[in-house]
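note to self — DONT lose this again. spent like an hour looking for the file last time. sequence + predicted structure for the chain T wanted, 99 res
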Amino acid sequence: MQVVGQAANGQEALTVAGQVRPDIVLIDDALASRDEIAALKSAREDAQVIVLATYPGGLWEALAASASDYVLIDSGSERVVSAIRRAAQRGIAVESKPH
């Protein structure tokens, strides 16, 4: 696993993703709109977009924007790592509340 880019907001994420063509994108839902999440997915259809969220309220918006996974930030690093592993294996699952 290798980090190939970083961005401060959704627009910058689109630019970086277009340059480095990542397999997996982790994006904070507070930094990206639904349209930007959808654009990340459409920029590279086989990319897996994992939305990291503070609140579970954006789950349906993220899924509607073709996010591959939705993980609450406070659910812990193990959940984030699990989401990355699932994405690497092209699995889709949603974490809507911490356990």
